[in-house]
Design a protein that fits this description.
This protein is α+β, with helices and mostly antiparallel strands. About 25% of the residues lie in helices and about 35% in strands. The chain has a seven-stranded antiparallel sheet with strand order 1-11-7-15-5-4-2. Strands 3, 6, 9, 10, 12 and 13 form a six-stranded antiparallel sheet that branches.
């Protein structure tokens, strides 16, 4: 856990923001080693780990596959990663607020964001583990969960592309003002962190700042098993 925290501490908010401003996403080098990825992935089937709900995506029309939301208390490594990564992303969210000339700001500490969510009736934790087998996929969507939604989220890949699974690319589609939508494949490796917008991102244009809408999903897995840790920073109603 100390190694993971040290790796997150090396992340630079300005570098992350510049990448997202340029192409809509940012991907780190691996923050977790293979053993830590396996440790997190194995939580999915451990009876001692509390989960608040299990979602069958086909049942809800979300795609094919399954995911589980953690319940309180979150596993220590999930709590630590969520808090440490949030502290790197809060300055980006506040920079976007300043660009839009709004006066409110996001708290710099994740604990304070949790308190804001609770005051708005959003008390359910949102970190989740997702598991895809061959033939599974996730439709394009946004992870909002309530009135308060922090504008960035993280995705950590726990398996090895082209070794443990094939296909299953992380997809991002951006709806651009007065232009056709743009699709991207987000290149992510085992143990790496991808940061993407939850709903929208500000883009400077001739008429000022536009707020491009984004949705993300996962392409069909052709072989093997693909597991990810989703780190959403706001809580749910």
């Amino acid at each position: 856990m100390v190694t993971v925290l040290a790796a997150i501490a090396q992340l630079e908010s300005d570098v992350i923001r510049e990448a997202i401003d340029a192409r809509g996403f940012w991907v780190s080098s691996p923050l977790l080693d293979a053993a830590t990825c396996a440790q997190i992935a194995q939580l999915y089937d451990e009876d001692t780990v509390p989960f608040r709900s299990t979602i069958d995506m086909a049942r809800h029309g979300f795609g094919e596959g399954e995911y589980k939301y953690f319940a309180h208390p979150l596993p220590p490594i999930v709590t630590m990663m969520r808090s440490a990564i949030y502290e790197k992303l809060a300055p980006i969210a506040n920079h976007w607020i300043h660009e839009s000339k709004h006066s409110s700001e996001w708290p710099l500490c994740h604990e304070e964001l949790v308190k804001l969510c609770a005051a708005a009736g959003q008390r359910k934790p949102t970190p989740l583990l997702l598991r895809y087998a061959a033939g599974d996929y996730n439709c394009l969507h946004q992870d909002l969960y309530g009135e308060i939604h922090f504008p960035l989220q993280g995705i950590v890949l726990l398996d090895r592309p082209d070794i443990d699974f094939e296909g299953g690319e992380l997809l991002l589609v951006e709806q651009r003002a007065r232009r056709q939508s743009k699709g991207s494949v987000v290149p992510i490796t085992q143990g790496a962190l991808a940061v993407i917008p939850v709903k929208e991102r500000p883009v400077a244009g001739a008429r000022g700042i536009a707020r491009n809408q984004l949705r993300h999903g996962v392409a069909e897995v052709r072989r093997g098993q693909r597991r990810t840790l989703g780190l959403i920073f706001h809580d749910a109603v």
